[in-house]
């Protein structure tokens, strides 16, 4: 009987070892799959990052070239143009309001000035009335 128990114990231990090995193998497989997925994602991210870097470099180059062109134009203009020529160029860029808009804005300013005038007259009258009560 003792031998049977020992044999059963050994068999049970072997089963436990086998199941542990299976569990370890499964865990290793899932870890490998996860690392492969992570590597794929990293590769994709690296490619995207490289594309973004190229686009950023191209944009920077375009900005530098356009800013260099603008600087050259400004340098050329400052050497050739006088004060009044610059003023006339700037005035050509101004967008002047239409006649109706000028009238509308002027009317709004006048109304606002009248309202402020009435407000300060009212404050002055109230202050003089309060002063008259205490004098």
What does this 3D model show about the protein?
- The structure is a single chain.
- The protein is mainly α.
- It contains 3 helices and no strands.
- The protein has helices at residues 2-80, 83-93, 99-134.
- It is elongated, with a radius of gyration of 43 Å.
- The chain starts with a helix and ends with a helix.
- The model has no long low-confidence stretch (mean pLDDT 80).
What order do the helices and strands come in, and which of them pair?
Layout: H1 2-80, H2 83-93, H3 99-134
Low-confidence stretches: none
Overall 3D shape: elongated
Q: Sheet with the most strands? A: none
How are helices and strands ordered from N to C? HHH
Query: Radius of gyration, rounded?
Result: 43 Å
- Helix count equals 3
Instruction: Tell me the structural class.
Output: mainly alpha
Helix content: over 70%
Terminal residue distance: 125 Å
Number of strands: 0
Subunit arrangement of the protein: single chain
Give the integer mean of the pLDDT values.
80
Q: Please indicate the percent range of residues in DSSP E strands (runs of 2 or more).
A: under 5%
């Amino acid at each position: 009987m003792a031998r049977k128990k020992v044999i059963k114990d050994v068999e049970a231990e072997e089963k436990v070892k086998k199941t542990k090995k299976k569990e370890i193998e499964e865990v290793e497989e899932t870890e490998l799959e996860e690392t492969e997925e992570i590597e794929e994602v990293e590769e994709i991210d690296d490619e995207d990052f490289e594309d973004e870097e190229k686009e950023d470099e191209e944009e920077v180059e375009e900005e530098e070239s356009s800013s260099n062109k603008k600087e050259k134009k400004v340098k050329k203009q400052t050497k050739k143009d006088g004060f009044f020529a610059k003023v006339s160029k700037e005035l050509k860029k101004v967008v002047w309001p239409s006649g109706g808009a000028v009238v509308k804005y002027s009317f709004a300013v006048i109304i606002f000035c009248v309202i402020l005038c009435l407000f300060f007259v009212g404050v002055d009258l109230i202050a003089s009335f309060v002063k008259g009560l205490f004098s």
